[in-house]
Automatic annotation (TrEMBL):
This is Cyclic nucleotide-binding/CBS domain-containing protein. Residues 155-222, 229-285 form the CBS domain. One of its GO terms (molecular function) is [protein-PII] uridylyltransferase activity. It comes from the Bacteria. Pfam families: CBS, cNMP_binding, DUF294, DUF294_C. Keywords: CBS domain. Residues 17-116 form the Cyclic nucleotide-binding domain.
């Protein structure tokens, strides 16, 4: 061995993870190294570069940057970079630049991967430790798309222009002209002064309101704003993502959205602001849905729905962003079908609320899904007089959803089933019986009803059920114990030595069902904790936040569950997007051999977190003996 190679070998030996290698392995690395010198300020790796080598800092220091240009990390002698790119097969996400004159050892990627696979201690160091690696893997999908990562408050360009409900319309119009705005926020009288602690938002007045409700109706200029404003207005918090604000605007078909800091208005977001910020066209499928006039037109949007999903995945949106956007699209289909159904059948004879259940209610919907829904009817409902109307309406909606790609539920959990089309009082009685007189078998097929959300109609009925569930479930240990039993029915696909246990037989031979064996049991575990904590949230990530706040989980335990759910969900999402791009039928089954070594190891980490979480709830929520 040449003297230069001996010097390289000895330097590597003094730094982990190379200190874990055998003499033969160290010598092979030393013989394979290429050495490069970089002056201070020189670029070593640029954004998007293909990573072919492991970078080892022999001397000097290196800075890594985010896409935004913000400093991500600073490394020195003996540190590594480029390993995540090699393991994941992704291009460089963190540009690297020499902070001072720097000497880099370039270790071939193929040699690095071979050492990674053959030397456990070397691999464990590179990956830091299981949970940190999983966290890093989950964070890779946060994305850099402004629509998906920007907070709404960042787009607020000026303080809100406000008037009170008693302000004359002519004064409000004059103020809008002076301030060069197209809307003013309307506050309750007495709450509009500069010293008000918490002004109460009463509504909004826009140019459109002035045209339609004042000029067109011939009302006098002295008309109080409170009589013509748009009341009960939707709003967003300043720390919500921009994509969430866009979804609210599309769902409610509004062009101005008040932005709040808790209850205090801090500005108004205009649709033009979002378009100016390069919104992604994929999310405008919601608007197209509401322009459809028949089942056939809605069915024709199936390719657009798939395309929007694929674009979000390719743009590195995280699972919450994707799930929320896809659930909003699903809700829009339901809402438009209900509108078309009422046009066909006439107005409903009594008020009702159409429910979304399962993944749509949780804002965790992906591309491959069936329809799970139900209907709450007003307590004035008379089956003999009213049921035929609601049966036909439910059938109209269900048929339309099926044609649009939301296939009929194989378990018949749909509003077309009379059992799931009941008055509010009957629903309350049903949930009370499930909670107070539970059994694991009885709850096996009804846990989906504990993920519910009002989609259309009188959605306050759904809120009443959520409140009832939160109050009752948290004080019923037998119920929680039975849910915990069911949450252990679907185990992660790990064998004794942490090898994957694959499906046998059928069309998905030698694959893993990432929903049935991954995301679904994680959702089940999180639901148990959330119900115990009295949470009314539906989304799994929000439920984890509520559970930590209530003291039922530590922040670390919740982070493990969150990162595991995020990683498995994103592997599933990329698989579905890959199928959709190639014109195939999206599904939840994946062959682990198509994954990179990094993804396989991270997937095993996620399944291990699930297995431990199932053990935890099995002992924490034990049902009373003799009453299971």
């Amino acid at each position: 061995m040449e003297i230069e190679q001996i010097e390289i070998r000895e330097h590597l030996r003094d730094h982990e993870p190379f200190s874990f290698l055998t003499d033969e392995e160290l010598e092979e690395v030393a013989r394979s190294v290429e050495v490069s010198y970089f002056r201070a300020g020189a670029d070593i790796v640029s954004l998007g570069d293909e990573i072919r080598d492991l970078h080892y800092i022999r001397s000097g220091s290196v800075e890594l940057f985010r896409r935004s240009g913000d400093l991500y990390n600073r490394l020195g002698e003996g540190d590594l970079f480029g390993q995540l790119g090699l393991l994941s097969g992704r291009p460089a996400r963190f540009p690297a630049r020499a902070l001072e004159d720097t000497l880099i050892y370039f270790i071939p990627g193929e040699l690095f991967k071979r050492l990674f696979d053959s030397n456990v201690a070397f691999a464990d160091y590179v990956e830091v430790e299981d949970r940190t690696r999983l966290r890093q893997a989950a964070k890779q999908h946060a994305g850099d798309n402004p629509l998906l990562t920007l907070r709404t408050g960042k787009l607020v360009r000026q303080s809100p222009v406000t008037v009170s409900v008693s302000t004359a319309v002519e004064d409000a119009a004059r103020l809008m002209t002076e301030e060069r705005v197209t809307s003013v926020l309307v506050l309750e009288d007495g709450d509009g002064g500069e010293t008000a602690a918490a002004p109460v938002l009463a509504g909004i007045l826009t140019d459109s309101d002035l045209r339609r409700r004042i000029v067109a109706e011939g009302l006098p200029p002295s008309t109080p704003v409170g009589e013509v404003m748009s009341g009960n207005v939707s709003s967003v918090q300043r720390d919500q993502f921009l994509f969430e604000a866009l979804l609210v605007m599309l769902r409610q078909n509004v062009h101005h959205l008040p932005v709040l800091d808790h209850r205090r208005p801090v500005g108004v977001l205009d649709m033009a602001d979002i378009i100016h910020h390069e919104t992604q066209n994929s999310l405008f499928v919601v608007r197209n849905i509401f322009h459809c006039g028949s089942h056939e037109e809605l069915e024709a949007l199936k390719p657009s729905v798939a395309a929007s999903f694929v674009r979000m995945v390719n743009e590195d949106a995280n699972s919450h962003m994707i799930g929320s956007a896809m659930a909003t699209i699903g809700r829009a289909f339901k809402q438009r079908l209900l509108e078309l159904g009422e046009e066909k059948l006439g107005p409903p004879p009594v008020p009702y609320c159409f429910l979304a259940l399962g993944s749509m209610a949780r804002d965790e919907q992906f591309l491959y899904t069936d329809q799970d829904n139900a209907m709450i009817l007003d307590d004035a409902f008379d089956p003999k007089v009213h049921d035929e109307y609601f049966r036909e309406l439910a059938q109209f909606v269900s048929d339309g959803l099926h044609r649009a790609g939301y296939v009929y539920c194989s378990g018949d959990i749909m509003a077309t089933n009379k059992k799931w089309r009941q008055p509010l009082a009957a629903w309350k009685q049903q949930f009370t019986e499930w909670i107070r007189k539970p059994s694991a078998e009885r709850l096996l097929h009804s846990s989906i009803f504990f993920d519910l959300d009002g989609v259309a109609g009188v959605t306050s009925m759904a809120d009443e059920l959520k409140s009832l569930i939160a109050q009752e479930a948290s004080v019923q240990p037998i119920f929680l114990g039975c849910l915990a039993i069911n949450a252990n029915n679907r185990t992660p696909p790990l064998g004794f030595f942490r090898d994957f246990v694959l499906e046998h037989g059928g069309r998905h031979e030698n694959s893993i069902n990432l929903k049935r064996r991954g995301t679904a049991p994680l959702v089940d575990v999180i639901r148990v904790h959330a119900l115990a904590a009295g949470s009314q949230s539906q989304n799994s990530f929000r439920r984890l936040e509520d559970t930590v706040a209530a003291g039922f989980l530590t922040a670390s335990m919740a982070a493990d569950l969150r990162d595991s759910l995020e990683f498995i969900a994103m592997v599933r999402a990329r698989h579905q997007a890959w199928d959709a791009e190639r014109g195939g039928e999206a599904n939840n089954n994946i062959d682990p051999e198509v994954l990179s070594a990094f993804e396989r190891r991270s997937l095993k980490d996620a399944f291990k977190v699930l297995a431990n979480a199932q053990k935890f709830i099995r002992f924490r929520y034990r049902p009373v003996r003799g009453r299971q």
